[in-house]
Amino acid sequence: MKVFITGATGFVGSHVAAAYAAQGAQLRLLTRSTSSLDALRELNAEIVQGDLRQPEQLRSALEGCDALVHVAADYRLWVPDPAEMYKSNVDGTRELLHIAREAGVRRVVYTSSVATMGFTKTTTIVNEATPVSEAEMIGHYKRSKWQAEQEAIAAARTGQHVMILNPTTPIGPADRKPTPTGRIIVDFLKGKFPAYVETGLNLVDVSEVARMHVVALERGTAGERYILGGENLTLKQILDKMAAISGLPSPTMKVPHAVAMAFAFFDETITGKLRGKEPRATVEAVRMGRKMMWASSSKAETDLGFQVLPVYHALRAAMEWFVANGYAPPFPQQA
Question: Which tens digit of pLDDT belongs to each residue from 237-251?
């Protein structure tokens, strides 16, 4: 089986590519000219350069492929030009699906996000059937992923075999960028996490997310969404788990959302707009943090054989990888 994978240089995508390689698939991987290929060095794969903002360039790359696994996305909570995010995430997805259909690619797995689900400010655990609308999407990243997911659903309705996976918050080793969640881990390890806000996340082992990308090709139902999650935890619980693993202190000061919002506005204005650099805190992230992003993966468990794994091993693996690769200093409990 020949598989075309986008986003293979990213955190989730690199694990997905490795999972397909382990199954003996022939890999054709999309990279950008500016992408680091460190994550792909151990893979026997054909590398294709291109850009989702110019999807017509990818037509020849899709020829002869049995499957498309579309993991790539512009995943940032702050962008100087939001239009570029929509061009990649929405327009790029729509055109890539169209080209794949014309090229005769039989099956597609689209990696969406749990961000498209209907979260609230309560501890309600949502699933794929929880009512939600685009108006509830906070910020450009969530809105662009919502719109891209609608493109995937629309393609499935026309007869294209497109399955949609919605990972929660993946963690594990090799988060090279790192992702916003990876930055939380790095900041904690560097002692730059003095306080926390009251919010909730669902953490999932990235290895299980990758495995589901392989399984979904055969067991997934076209047009269906599948949440891939793990443990539902408050941010304080996550920090406490990292403290237990590392021996570093967990912050005890809880900051009201209003204070966090004021800091984010200041950081976004000074660091982002005036200095042109990515701020450490963003208004969008604080607004998102007002909602408890807790979710159920029961549908994926039933239909795909997904396993909800304890987060401890993935969290420890992530922390050790960041230390081993120079992102953070060794922690006390690393013997």
Answer: 999 999 999 999 999
For residue 135, give the 3-state DSSP assignment: helix
Q: What tens digit of pLDDT does each residue of 173-210 get?
A: 999 999 989 999 999 999 999 888 889 999 999 999 99
CB-facing half-sphere around the CA of 10: CA atoms within 13 A: 21
Summarised one tens digit per residue, pLDDT across range 244-280 is 999 999 999 988 756 555 555 455 566 655 566 666 6
Domain ranges, residue 222: 2-171+205-230+295-308
Residue 268 domain-assigned? no
When divided into structural domains, the chain yields a total of 1
Q: How far apart are CA 201 and CA 181, in angstroms?
A: 10
Would you say residue 180 lies in a domain? no
7-31 in b/e burial notation, b at 16+ Cβ within 10 A? bbbbbbbbbbbbbbbeeebbbbbbb
The one-letter amino acid at 123: T
* CATH number of domain containing 108: 3.40.50.720
Beta strands 200-205; 107-111: pairing state: unpaired
Q: Give the model confidence (pLDDT) of 109-134 as tens digits.
A: 999 999 999 987 778 899 999 999 99
pLDDT tens-place string over residues 14-29: 999 999 999 999 999 9
Place of tokens 């230390």: 323
pTM above 0.85, yes or no: yes
Residue 187 is encoded by which pair of tokens?
């900041």
- Strand (E) or helix (H) holding 169: strand 169-171
DSSP state of 190: T
Peptide bond into 82 cis (omega under 30): no
